[in-house]
UniProtKB/TrEMBL annotation:
Keywords per UniProt: ATP-binding, Nucleotide-binding
Protein name: Flp pilus assembly complex ATPase component TadA
Record-annotated membrane-spanning stretches: none
PANTHER family reported for this sequence: SLL1921 PROTEIN, TYPE II SECRETION SYSTEM PROTEIN GSPE-RELATED
Organism: Pseudaquabacterium terrae
Length: 537
């Protein structure tokens, strides 16, 4: 429609809220609130397209650039429309309730209550994530509990679309809170009044699918700071002692690796909180996070958010690290080294007299070096024990419910023969302590498991270890770590937990692979199992 025709159509009297209540919008709904015809946040303030083709426009705004842009999009899509003036109250009313369809509709306010109830239910189940899948014929909602996806409810497609729009547009703290179903978006919820009491925040990621849309919400609990001890997380006493040594060093880069959801942020939170408590406030700790995940009392936490593109996010993240170095820190925590720029900034911080803690995605502790080199850092600088002082890797594995777990002996038939053979060879005389998952009980709510525990390996590299790494002899570096430094791999730690009866061997193998011991690693016996059992409980 030409601008002059649009202006002429706007010359009639505007539709008022009284007209709406009198039935002027009966039987129609707002189609500019969702789908391909969704209006942007600025457009939605000025107009509303109804299912019968009426395009309601605020008086005096027929020539507004946002209105003209929306009309041009309708023309390109071949969508017929008939412009009519309507008051701002009418447009806001229809935007909030979705139109005048027969039957009850859910507005943003009511859906916010529903969304908070969903978050509360997930917290009660101690879910780590919520998956909302909007499909062609309905919506499915899943909780990730103890690393497994559990379907918890189903709804209509329209319900799911409104839930996603409400979660993104009405609850997140982002500069552009317009939910765009056809785009990938990231956001977070941080306002305390929008969250259950035991949640610190929620990270949100959305993506279009072949059938509809997917939203995944990572729940960030605020009880991570209740205890600074690493052993309740699953770290052994030896592991905790090694990290204490790293905490006490004034310089050096300490890197924790693991897949998404392996508890890296929780470990960092406890390490830094413990460091601050031990220093009695004499240390200046700065974090650079995207976004801030857990509160660290006493630290200065700086967010890097709302970048419109990945390149811009990378630039801002690197700039934030450089800025943190100029703020007189003793310790810098970098949420994640994800690209060359952030890796270079982290290494520069470690080389200029700061203690640095960060995370990276790598398969194991020694592979962290390969990952840093892959990101563009020179090997001679990475393989320097005065710069990189700690390499840590961790995984999370389910803990057996102590009330209903079953001893392996007497229930061997529940394991496949090959798994049973590997378990017997791995634990040796400690086979009597091995347990497997039971049928579930009231204590574990029928899951057979009660939380998760960390499986860890820690390398504190010295000059000889890095000499092997620099010369390309990773096998010799591994042998040196295991034999001369009494190192223990993720697999070794998993076997200790299996021998102690805290982890089902099948669950351990899902985390670390087949339970086949390295010949250089110490054998597991009843003493190790007893020690792990004490630590676990």
């Amino acid at each position: 429609m030409k601008p002059e025709a649009l202006a002429s159509a706007m010359s009639v009297a505007a539709i008022t809220l009284e007209d709406v209540k009198g039935g002027a919008m009966y039987g129609v709904k707002a189609v500019s609130a969702e789908g391909d015809l969704r209006a942007s946040a600025e457009e939605a303030k000025l107009l509303c397209l109804l299912s019968d083709g009426r395009l309601l426009i605020a008086p005096g705004h027929g020539m507004n650039p946002h209105v003209l842009s929306f009309c041009a999009r309708l023309d390109r899509l071949g969508q017929p429309y008939r412009p009519l003036p309507a008051t701002f109250e009418v447009i806001a009313h229809l935007r909030d309730i979705g139109g005048g369809e027969r039957g009850p509709r859910v507005d943003h306010t009511k859906m916010q209550v529903t969304a908070k109830e969903l978050l509360t239910r997930a917290c009660n189940d101690r879910a780590s994530d919520i998956h909302i899948r909007v499909r062609r014929n309905g919506t499915e909602i899943y909780f990730r509990i103890h690393n497994d996806l559990v379907r918890v409810m189903s709804h209509t497609r329209e319900y799911g679309e409104r839930l996603l729009a409400t979660l993104y547009a009405a609850m997140t703290t982002v500069s552009d809170n317009a939910y765009k179903p056809n785009e990938r978006q990231d956001a977070s919820i941080g306002d305390r009044d929008k969250l259950p009491n035991n949640l610190h925040g929620v990270r949100i990621a959305t993506a279009p699918t072949n059938e509809g849309n997917l939203m995944v919400m990572r729940l960030l609990y605020n009880d991570a700071g209740d205890d600074v001890d690493l052993q309740p997380l699953g770290y052994s006493s030896d592991h905790a002692a090694m990290l204490k040594v790293l905490q006490d060093q004034p310089i050096g880069m300490n890197i924790i690796s693991g897949p998404t959801g392996s508890g890296k942020s929780t470990t960092l939170q406890r390490v830094l909180t413990g460091q601050l408590l031990a220093s009695k406030g004499t240390l200046h700790v700065i974090t650079v996070e995207d976004p801030i995940e857990y509160p660290i009392p006493g630290a200065v936490q700086t967010p890097v958010t709302n970048a419109p593109t990945e390149d811009e996010r990378s630039r801002l993240f690197s700039a934030a690290i450089s800025n943190a170095m100029r703020l007189d820190p003793d310790t810098i925590m970098i949420g994640e080294v994800r690209d060359r720029a952030s890796a270079q900034s982290a290494l520069r911080a470690a080389m200029t007299g700061h203690q640095v803690w960060t995370t990276v995605h790598a398969n194991n502790a020694i592979a962290i070096v390969d990952r840093l080199v892959d990101l563009g850092l020179p090997l001679p600088m990475v393989a320097d024990p005065s710069v990189v002082t700690g390499l840590i890797s961790q995984r999370l594995v389910k803990v057996l419910c102590p009330a209903c777990k079953q001893p392996l002996l007497g229930n061997e038939r529940q394991l496949p023969d090959d798994v049973l053979g590997r378990v017997k060879r791995a634990v040796g005389p400690a086979i009597g302590g091995v347990h497997i998952a039971g049928p579930g009980c009231d204590r574990c709510r029928g899951y057979g498991t009660a939380g998760r525990t960390c499986i860890v390996e820690v390398v504190t590299p010295d000059a000889q270890f890095f000499e092997y790494i620099r010369s390309g002899q990773k096998l010799l570096a591994m042998e040196y770590w295991l034999s001369e430094q009494q190192g223990a791999t993720l697999l070794d730690h998993a076997i200790v937990k299996v021998a102690a009866g805290t982890v089902d061997p099948r669950m351990a193998e899902k985390a670390v692979g087949h339970l086949t011991r390295n010949t250089l690693a110490p054998r597991v016996d009843s003493r190790y199992a007893a020690l792990e059992s004490i630590n676990a409980h």
